[in-house]
Design a protein that fits this description.
The chain is α+β, with helices and mostly antiparallel strands. It has helices at residues 4-22, 27-30, 41-59, 68-78, 83-102, 124-138, 150-164, 199-206; strands at 110-112, 118-120, 173-176, 181-184, 193-196, 216-218.
Length: 228
């Protein structure tokens, strides 16, 4: 069962870790490339702030973004700001998300995200936790997939394996770290491919943060995953 209150607390802790790490940067560092193609660290920080506000919209029954174009324009507008403005915005928007999450609500209701995607409101805090943790890694400031909380890593592998389940372009695949097994890809009586590796490497591959070169594939080549 999803514990949205616990996830909200985890979001706060993850946000504080990110803000503490980002505070060690300077204005020049913010303009440097992040690990996301085409984005500077400023883009990542701007996206984190705007995503918090977007998820407030979701929780309060408004469209997540006015449009895809407006979302992209807001990130481009905010990316060049100096570090102190970036950090203040991330912190203030995180507080708005915390307040929205603390408001009395029916957490079993269905909410709408981007591109017509729907989910239980109770899953929104975990979705925000994903944004904060993975984009902390994307900043390239010494926080790696191996540093992610173990609970988060396992749950995000669960989420991403489920996301690719039934996808026609992904072969029936068995994932394992040697202690647990996940299944993903097209429905089949048996997997075509078994992918083995550490949880950090499995998560990195599923989330598009690593190329999978540290993984081993048996029964066929490492599947090519569609973009998230």
């Amino acid at each position: 069962m999803i514990d949205h209150a616990r996830d909200l607390a985890s979001v706060q802790q993850a946000t504080e870790r990110l803000l503490s790490a980002a505070a060690e940067l300077d204005n020049a560092d913010v303009t440097q490339p992040s690990r996301l193609p085409g984005w500077s660290r400023g883009h990542v920080l701007a996206h984190l702030a705007r995503n918090a506000d977007a998820l407030v919209n979701v929780l309060q029954g408004r469209p997540m973004y006015v449009s895809a174009e407006a979302r992209d324009a807001d990130i481009e507008r905010d990316a060049p700001r100096p570090l102190d403005e970036q950090l203040a915005d991330v912190r203030a928007s995180a507080e708005r998300f915390r307040e929205a999450g603390a408001a009395p609500a029916d957490w079993t209701r269905t909410v709408e995200l981007r591109n017509g995607v729907t989910d239980s409101a109770s899953r929104v805090p975990f979705r925000r936790w994903v944004e904060v943790e993975l984009h902390h890694v994307d900043l390239g400031v010494g926080y790696e997939l191996e540093d992610l909380p173990a609970e988060f890593t396992e749950r995000e592998i669960d989420f991403l394996a489920d996301r690719f389940t039934g996808h026609p372009d992904v072969p029936p695949t068995r994932l394992t770290d040697g202690t647990r097994v996940w299944r993903t890809g097209r429905e089949a009586d048996a997997p075509e491919v078994t992918v083995r590796g550490s949880r950090a490497d499995l998560l990195g591959w599923l989330a598009g943060r690593r190329d999978g070169s540290a993984l081993t594939a048996e029964g066929g080549p490492l599947p090519s995953l569609p973009p998230l």
